[in-house]
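hiii, so i know i said id send this last week but things got crazy w the move. better late than never?? heres the sequnce for the chain we talked about at the cafe, plus the structure i predicted for it. fair warning i was half asleep when i ran it
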Amino acid sequence: MENIDLQYLCTVIGNLSGIPIRLYRGNVPEFCHSLVRLPRDPIGVYIADIRNIQTNVGYFVTKHFNYYGIVNAKDVKIIIGPTRQTENTTQELRELAFRADVPAEETDDFVNAMKSIVRMPLESIMQILCTMNYILNGEKLSLHDIAIYDTQEPSFFQQPMPHGTADMSRPHNLHNTFELEQTVMNIVRKGDSAALQEWTASAPAVRGGILADEQLRQLKNTFIVTTTLASRAAIRGGMDIDDAFTLSDAFIQKCELISAPDKIINLQYQMVTEFTRRVEMIRLGKQPSKLAIDVANYIQHHLSEPITAEDIAKELYLSRPYLSRKFIEETGISLTDYILNEKTEEAKRLLRYSDKSLTAISGYLGFSSQSHFSRVFKKYSGSTPGEYREKFTV
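okay and structure toks below
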C-alpha cells in the first residue's frame, strides 16, 4: 500500500461512480472528492458510528436507507457515500440537512446536490468496496463477506422481540399464520401503534410454511413476504403508493445484506413498526376520507416548510374555501389546527431525540420565529418546548 497514491485512487473511484468519497488517516480527514457541491457533508451526522467500524470492509445504512461503504487499511479509512438505489424524498433530505446543520439559506442547494448524486444498487457499491480492499489490503472478498452496520435511530421505535418468535430450526406441519397475518396487517392498516406494542408484548409463536430448505433463506423469504403484505396494508391505510413501495424495497435490500438470523427477526419488527407509524401519521379518525388522506400525505411530505391552505388546495386542484369547509366537515378539525398539530408532533420528536436548539427546530419546521413556534407548541401540547424537553431529559 506504501506505493499507492490514495488521493488518485479516491479521485478515480469518485469520478467513475459519481458518489462522494473521502480519505481519512488516523480518523483525521485528509482528502475529499465529489462531483457535486454539497454545502455541508452529510457524513457528519454519522461519522462517529462510521469511525467505529474497524473491519477491512464495512457497510453503513442510515435511517433513510442511504448507505456508506468503508474500507480500512492500517491507519487509512476510505468512505464512499451517501447513495441509495432510489431517490430520497425532498422531506427526507430537508431533515438530513437540518441534522447536518446546513444553514437555512443553503438547504435547497443541499437538497438539489443530494439528488444529483448518482444512485447505485447495493451490489455495485459492494463491488467497489471489494476492489478497493484488494488494492489496499491484498484481500479477496465476496459480497457475502461484507459486514453491515446501521444507525439505531429512535424514529424506528424498535420493539423487543416477543418470546414467541418463530423457531425455524425444524419444519412445522401446522400453520397458524393466516390469523396472525390478519391481526398484524389490520394493525398496520389502521396505523395503531399502541395495539402493535400490546400485541408484540405477547405475540404467539409463528408456525409458518416452509419457503426454503436453508434456515437463513427461510427467514429472508419470510421477511420479503411480510414486507410485501405490510406495504399493501399501509397503502390500504392511506400511505402514498410510491412511499410504501420505496420503503418496502429499502427494507428488503437491507435484509438481503444481513446474515444473522436474530438481526433479520429484529429488522422485521422494525419494518412492521415503521409502516404502522407512517400510517398513524396520516390517518384522521377510524375511517378517514380520501380528501383527509390526501391532505395528510401532503403535510408529511412538506413538514419542514411553511404550509398554507392555499398550498394544499393548489396541489389537490381545489379551491381554498371548498377545501377548508370540506376538511372540517369530514374530520371535525380545521385544516389550520391539523397542520399545526402535526408540526407540534414532529417538534416533540425532535425535542426528545435530538440536541438541536429551539431556534433550529423552529426554523426547520417553517415557523416565522421562535416565539411563534413556542406559542403554537404550548397551544397544542400544553407545555412550552423547553418544559417538554426537560421532561424527557435523563
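btw The chain has three domains: 6-150, 154-282, 306-391. thought thatd interest u
miss u guys!!
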